[in-house]
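Troubleshooting log. The previous structure file for this entry was overwritten by mistake, so regenerating from the original sequence record. Sequence copied from the archived sheet and checked twice against the printout by T.R.
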Amino acid sequence: MEPFFAKCTCSYLCWDDYFMAVAFLSAERSKDPNKQVGACIVNDENIILSIGYNGFPRGCADSRLPWAKRAESGSILDTKYPYVSAGSLQCAVVVHAEANALLNKNQAHVTGARIYVTLFPCNECAKLLIQAGIREVVYHEAKLEPTGKRPGTMEEAAAEEAAVDALEETEDFVLGSYAELKKANPDTPILVRECSGTEAKLIARFDFGVEKSVSVQGLDASGVSSKLQELVKSGEGLPRSGE
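Regenerated output below.
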């Protein structure tokens, strides 16, 4: 790079990419051989309040407790679930990435904050996030059942108290088109954000930090697809790095 070049670089990470990268880095601390999950809680000033990853409770020997998802004995006590997941046991200890992040927070409360997680929260963690006042969830991967539906959503976990809008059409488009979009744009991060009281939007970030958005409130999957194409075309005339 020319030492007297006066312009800033355009290759820096946006906040969403940065905090999701922190969540993925946190996941690397997990010893779970089946799924490493990380979480990062951030306030509205983009300051990190906490991080967490999935694992056994503090003080438990990682080498002595089982990590298996299923046991040949048929007993759930010979699997990891009584120790790392709320599951169906009343005595289970919740130490998923989201729960650990809430427990590790560096201030009294996280009301109004948002959380970045590498995997969509389970019902138990969703309830904890709601009770803690988390305003927004940004996740990278949605865990799906064989039917193609998620086993639990923030809407279901929140029940009536959270009053979260169920934007099923937009969600169906994202989940149904993710593989195709990622294949066409392998180097482009695609994040999904879910929060209450917020208009549904598609947001694209172009070179030099330029962001554009378009509303998809109330649209079906076909309408969302059309808006996505419209959003992409709106950035065609913008300056590109290297030009």
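The chain is about 30% helix and 15% strand. Archived copy saved in two places this time.
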